[in-house]
Amino acid sequence: MLRLAWSVLLFVVSGLVAQTTTAAFLPTDGQGSPESQSSTGHLHSRIDRVIEAAAVGPLAPICTDAEFLRRVCLDLTGVIPSVSEVNAFAADNAASKRQRLIDQLLASPEFIRHMAVQLDVMLLERRSDKHVPEADWESYLLNSIADRKPLDQLFRELIYPNPDDQSISAAAKFLLSREAEPNAVTRDIGRLALGMDLQCAQCHDHPLIDEYYQQDYFGLFAFVQRTSLFTDPASKKVRLAEKPAGEASFTSVFTGEGREWARPRIPRGTSAPEEPVFVEGGEYQVAPAKNVPGVPKYSRREVLAEMLAENVWFQRNLANRLWAMIFGRGIVHPPDVHHSANPPSNPVLLNLLANELKAGDFDLRFFLQQLALTRAYQRSSSAPQPEVLNFADIAARAERLAGEQQLASAAIPPLKAALQQAQSDLAAAVTVEEKLRPKLTESAKAIATATFRQQTAQNQSRAVSEKLKLEEEQLRVVNEAIQQIQQSVTQLPDETVLQEAVAVLEKHVQSVTKIINSTQKEITKAQSELSMAEMELPRLQLLHAELEIAAVPADRIAELEAREINSRIQLDEATARLKALESQLAVCSQIAEFESVRLTDPARADLIWQDLTEQWTITGQIAALKPLTAEQLAASAMRAVGVLDPQIASLRSKLEKSPPKSLMEAAETDRDRLQTVLLQSQIINQLRTTMRQFVTTYGGLPAEEFQATVGQALFFGNSSLINDWLTSSDDRLSVQLARCSDNQELVRQLYLSILSRPADDGEQQELCQMLSENNEDRNQIIRELIWALLSSNEFRFNY
Amino acid sequence: MKCPYACESAEHLVSRRSFLDGLLTGSALATTGLTGLMAGLPAVASELRSSHKRVLNIFLHGGVSQLESWDPKPNTDTGGPFSAIATSVPGLQICELLPHTAKQMHHLSVIRSLNTKNGDHGRGQVEMTTGHKQIPGTDYPHLGAVVAKAITPAEFTLPGHVLIRGAGTSMNKAAYLGPKFESVVMNNGQPPQFTERPKDVTPEIDQRRNALRTRVNDRFAERRRTADTDAYTFSFDQAQNLLAQRDVFDVARESAADQQRYGSSEFGQHCLLARRLLEHDVPFVQINHSNYDTHFENFDFHIEQLGEFDLPFATLIADLADRGLLQDTLVVVMSEFGRTPKINARYGRDHWGTAWSVLLGGTGVQPGAIIGSTNANGTAVTDREVDHGHLFHTILQAVGVDSAGEFVVGGRTFPLADPAKGPIQELLS
Question: Among A553, B24, B149, B266, which residue's Cβ finds the most Cβ atoms within 10 Å?
């Protein structure tokens, strides 16, 4: 633990000494269990404790201030720092300056833009612009980040953009850009929200991954299959529509087996709660019509969206993707292949991150802040030297690990048996459920409809009886009147008027009687309908009760499902723990092998050392070299040569001089935020063409394999775009450097502008000599210098 | 624990090797190795000759009529006005519109029993060139990308996947195989993008600034060197090598006699260019020839289109055979689908994926074979029904690639071809 304390100390004082530090790599001793070390303190310290407890081999020293500044600017704002930022950070002597910088960057408008771009790439994966204008989509993302929208809410909106909320209508692009095609949507919700690419399980159980089943695919599919595209016939605008019914079923193309009815269930998670039953014809909140997309009262897609935040795979996937964004590689890699044969490199770490992401209400800034504060993030990326290793320590460690491995290995068989039991129990229940559930739903609907009919008949019969009462009263009064007048007729037989009156009234009696007769018929009819409904209802109820007796109760299924999920998680964790121990042991034996061939076979030793270095990078002991994304590369090159900041300044001043109406009309309190979002949206738009060219050339999907292509090198060497950046016009770097009569100053500015650090003595000397010896056009030499630095590995990578 | 970056892939293998060999394939090339390459290009090319197989895919856009090409049915209700002619293979007849090709059929084989169950242009293009059924939400790599990744040697400088087409911007996508294997496009036969230095960057300037880049990289390598940094360094060296060989893309360098033999038509020039690229070992070349979508006047259009196709194609096959290139090169002629046996009211034929043909020849396949057959008037496959999936496997197997294998890209595993299908074994030699 003493050694650990050294590195903590080193971290604390790094703000003061890091610039000149040549701190050595620190060996690890791996004492104490990681679980016990992760329970208290700030998240970033807990992350470090977990990483360091699992570390076998060296821990790299904390990187220099200049390295840290470039790294964190690229990661949080997508672009290298400006020369003034480099100078200011170097001049700052405060011990807390790194933390302050992180907070500043997280609060900056550039963070909003960078994250909007990252999310756009992650969610749409460079799909062509369709159905929702890209500016609207970008504004939606910019606003979401500016408003600190929790990420679970963001995903909820993407999967179910509530049709009643116009402010988030652009979120529908996530589904619309996939044409709301249920297979495409199933695959991408699986990949992007749950970290599981179930594509190959669409037609059969996954051929390569034992744990991805066809029923997983269709469980997810069942949530989205009722959704489709709706095109407004007049405006041609495309929106989402959803139906209230439709069930999934499947058959394996290999075995011919399948399910007649697939429960809507998050893969390896919980099922949707039982669906409410609606009367036939009463299923829609907004009924579909020629020019109106249907909105059902109960949306399965909405249910899925609501279920996500509580799902452990969602939490792990999101934590893993954010980690990969900052550290260059997921703890599970690739990020959409979470399963036990591809375990997290550090399972305790992934659990910690997933839990804390949720505990922190899925707040993006808090999470990234904690990641950036870790020692793991702030370590040097330089390769370690073999001298840092204490071979005796490693051998002792290996012995301890072998003991732990045996224990971990012994823990697995009972967990495997428990999972198998839980799986077969659930499968048995589901087989019954699958047969009965569609019938139960149908019969529940029939009961609801019959009940509705019975009530209608009852109401009708009641209303008609009321009417009859009134009519009979009318008849009674008229008959009384007739009797009275007839008395008068016997008294005054000559008054013909009275006789005429009797005749009129008697005629009236006839018509009222007719009405009464028809009303009585109505009553008979209503009563017969009622009695029919009353007869049918018990029959339906009986049928339903019989089905229910045969069915597995919903809470029983939920219980079996919970048991299966828990068994799976326990087995997964135990397996991951074992694999992690095996990896640590493998590192130990690789180190031993290195030692044994070090003197006899230096080439082999070198190769082993390279492998070890890459593994220490994955385990967070050494910082990674991360290739810049196409956007980071473009923006950084533009900033370095001096074409980025003038464009941004010009957009800003234009916006300030002639603000658009929306900004003028905004409430005072909202104006700043609105202006920020507007400006960032305009910057994205302004840079679009350049970014597209870089993306086409360099590729640009998250977790894509790094590829350096001839095409890229040709583009960088020969395209007019890059060459124009080097020419001497306006306020470009080439012009600024040409103004430096002093070669020392020229080299200094060159390095600060492009590599975000001062040139070291050797570099100074070499370039100054080159400049002074050269008889060629000085401007030409400057262009060559700028190009050479821009095309260097140091510029291409975030190190 | 698995090696942290995919050791299986060629680009990483070269990086790994360069770790061992110091700077041999890396920065030294830019300063010293280059001049040798620049001076002795033909020698270098012949040294590299036959180091790997090649594929030429000729894609007849719009859907060529199998009845007017590889599966004629003269004197039937569906046969149309043309007759069938004998070819250099006894017993194999093709349409009279292809008299020159007929003389080369002993190098080629016909598959007459394709049933791809599709009549949509977009889907047909995707399915025929990826060997997979189109599935929403999934992109598969083009044949060119798969071949380029499977057979391009790590040290190879020229692009592995070239598309020669008329003007336009379309590409053959590499999907999950990554930008490295996307097609390099030669629009109208023009050199690929960015293969000309800007006018103010002379070769000397370029060499100087690259030498400077190398020194900057060498410094950085002292602190950290990875497969990725090596690959990035290597890409710039490759670019310099490619610029030195830029003539490979210039069809005007071919002799006047050859220019005349291939003719001045766009397709003729593209065939000559393809020969040039194949001679320089480019692993995958595709020529697109448009347009065969003959809903009207099918017969006039095929006279015109196949008239343009026949002589340059036959010349190319003869040349590839004469020069020994056919031993290592597989030639494929495909479309998105065929055309209906039924002749419509406008003398046209419509889209038809039910019973149609493709042509294959060269390395790895039997010459002069006929695979499968259709019924008397071509309305159905009667024997050996196959589809795009089988064809894709067959093409890969023919050039020595195990089509049942898998690629590992960025930690993910992808089958090379549809695992539910396999090659047409009897066609393979």
Answer: B149
Per mean pLDDT, which range of A278-287, A359-368, A636-645, A773-782 is the poorest?
A: A773-782
B257 touches chain A (CB under 8 A): no
**Contact (CB<8Å) A188/B137:** yes
- The pLDDT score that the predictor gives to residue B30 is 35
- CA pair distance A175, A80, nearest whole angstrom: 34
Task: List the 616-635 stretch of A: residues with Cβ below 8 A of B.
Answer: 617-618, 625, 627
Cβ proximity of A193 and A267 under 8 Å: no
Whose tokens are 């305790």? That residue is A348
Q: What is the CA radius of gyration of chain B?
A: 23
Quote the CA–CA distance of A594 and A582 in Å, as a whole number. Answer: 18
pLDDT at A240: 96
pLDDT at A637 over 50: yes
* B3, B197, B239 ranked by CB distance to A713: nearest: B239
CA terminus-to-terminus distance, chain B = 41
Given B198, B231, B413, which is nearest A720 (Cβ)? Answer: B198
Largest CA distance in chain A: 149
Nearest to B5 among A199, A614, A713 (CB): A614
Evaluate whether A98 touches A378 at the Cβ level (below 8 Å): yes
- Whether B239 and A199 lie within 8 Å, measured CB to CB: no
The predicted complex's ipTM stands at: 0.86
Question: φ, ψ for residue A492 (rounded to 5)?
Answer: -125, 75
pLDDT tens digits, residue range B376-386?
999 999 999 99
Contact map slice: B 18-57 vs A, CB within 8 A:
19-20
The answer to whether A789 contacts B231, with C-beta atoms less than 8 Å apart, is no
User: B167 falls in which pLDDT band (50, 70, 90)?
Assistant: low
Q: Return the residue of B nearest to A610 by Cα.
A: B226
Place of tokens 């339903």: A544
> Could you please report the per-residue DSSP string of A45-110?
HHHHHHHHHH--SEEPPBPPHHHHHHHHHHHHHSSPPPHHHHHHHHH---TTHHHHHHHHHHTSHH
Rounded-to-integer distance, Cα A671 and Cα A680, Å? 14
| Phi, psi for B300 (deg, rounded to 5) | -60, -45
Q: Does A405 touch chain B (CB under 8 A)?
A: no
B5: nearest Cα among B315, B280, B409, B345: B409
pTM over 0.95: no
Beta-carbon separation of A780 and B205 below 8 A: yes
Q: Does the pLDDT at position A392 exceed 70?
A: yes
The values of phi and psi at residue A94, to 5°, are: -65, 140
Give the pair of three-digit tokens for residue A422: 């839980």
CA distance A263 to A247: 8
Smallest CA–CA separation between B314 and chain A, in Å? 33
List pLDDT tens digits, range B198-239: 999 999 999 999 999 999 999 999 999 999 999 999 999 989
Say if residue A764's pLDDT is above 70.
yes
**Contacts made by residues A68-72, CB under 8 angstroms, sequence distance 24+:** A68/A18, A68/A98, A68/A101, A68/A378, A69/A101, A69/A756, A70/A756, A70/A757, A70/A798, A71/A377, A71/A623, A71/A798, A71/A799, A72/A98, A72/A101, A72/A102, A72/A105, A72/A372
Instruction: Give how far B232 is from chain A: nearest CA, Å.
Output: 5
Cβ of A717 within 8 Å of Cβ of B239? The answer is yes
Give how far A615 is from chain B: nearest CA, Å: 6
User: Computed over its alpha carbons, how large is the radius of gyration of chain A?
Assistant: 37
Are B364 and B88 within 8 A, CB to CB?
no
Chain B residues lying within 8 Å of A791, measured CB to CB:
213, 236
Judged by CB atoms closer than 8 Å, whether chains meet at B216 and A788 is answered as yes
Q: In chain A, which among 282-341 make CB contacts under 8 A with chain B?
A: 333-334, 337
Q: Which residue from A199, A697, A718 is facing B138, i.e. has the nearest CB?
A: A199
